[in-house]
Amino acid sequence: MASQVSSKPLETMGFQRRSATRRCPKSGRSARLAAVEQHSLLAFPCDYPIKVMARVGPGLREQLDAIVRRHAADLDGSRISERPSAQQNFVGVTYIIRAHNAEQIAALFADLKTVESVLLVL
Question: Which of 37, 39, 40, 70 has the fewest CB atoms within 10 Å, counting from its CB?
């Protein structure tokens, strides 16, 4: 039995087309624009938290610390926290750096994402 394809637009069938650009629910602006504007709300230099989620592996913490110190040489060890997952398979490491500009943050994020075991950088 061949299926019939409706010639009705999706909107008339009770469906709505998804917009290619995600919109901010409060302002109606694009989410990307809202993110850029939020970045401009930072007054540099400022303390900036960076959270890295990764699979546990040998030398991971040393590798992450080296990358962060390359971008934030004044990083204080007391401003680093580590939290393992319940089954010890993953780890979350939070760094609070002293950020001097948006480019520094972007470069740090890019370098952290190159680590194979890193799953997410926030």
Answer: 40
